[in-house]
């Protein structure tokens, strides 16, 4: 009976004495392919929002060495090249951008070295904090959706990475905004 099961759920026990062919099934671990992290940036939304542009992302995310527009793409497509300090290079495509709702969505379209999954879509949302001890600050939410071929290890590896990104961006943005205040 086990030979008629789909390939990904073939039994690992070929013993004829097994009465339940599903007893020792080898299946992938079900995994949520989304992750979200958030933080408070102690700077006003107007100051932070101007840094959330893919072409200026190196001003926001300190892991980047540079961020530049990719030339010779269609007029309808915004593609940027991100060069990381560790030598990794991504080309990202801006999928959506809202100056009204203060969010940007991008996808990774190429990566060197190659990623272990097919695709990733990320959204950064900013919200003004209008009351409480953090009034005048910005709440940032950075979420990512991975293709279904990303396994549990990819998602779990992304969690501290995304937390680190949010925290580093929070500190980097705060320092950047403080420098801007001093210049005024």
UniProtKB/TrEMBL annotation:
Region (Disordered): 1-25
Superkingdom of this protein's organism: Eukaryota
UniProt-listed InterPro entries: START-like_dom_sf (IPR023393)
Biased composition (Polar residues): 1-23
SUPFAM superfamilies assigned: Bet v1-like
Listed name of the protein: Bet v1-like protein
Organism the protein comes from: Saitoella complicata (strain BCRC 22490 / CBS 7301 / JCM 7358 / NBRC 10748 / NRRL Y-17804)
Source lineage: Eukaryota, Fungi, Dikarya, Ascomycota, Taphrinomycotina
């Amino acid at each position: 009976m086990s030979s008629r099961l789909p390939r990904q759920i073939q039994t690992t026990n070929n013993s004829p004495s097994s009465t339940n062919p599903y007893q020792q099934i080898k299946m992938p671990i079900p995994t949520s392919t989304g992750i979200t992290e958030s933080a408070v940036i102690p700077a006003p939304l107007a100051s932070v929002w101007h840094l959330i542009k893919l072409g200026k992302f190196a001003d926001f995310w300190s892991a980047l060495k540079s961020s530049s527009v990719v030339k010779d793409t269609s007029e309808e497509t915004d593609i940027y090249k991100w060069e990381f300090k560790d030598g990794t290079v991504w080309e990202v495509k801006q999928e959506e951008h809202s100056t009204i709702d203060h969010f940007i969505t991008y996808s990774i379209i190429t990566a060197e070295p190659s990623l272990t999954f097919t695709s990733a879509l990320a959204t950064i949302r900013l919200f003004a904090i209008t009351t409480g001890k953090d009034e005048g600050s910005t709440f940032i939410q950075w979420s990512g959706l991975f293709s279904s071929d990303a396994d549990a290890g990819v998602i779990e590896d992304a969690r501290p990475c995304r937390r680190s990104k949010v925290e580093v961006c929070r500190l980097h943005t705060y320092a950047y905004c403080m420098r801007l205040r001093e210049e005024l």
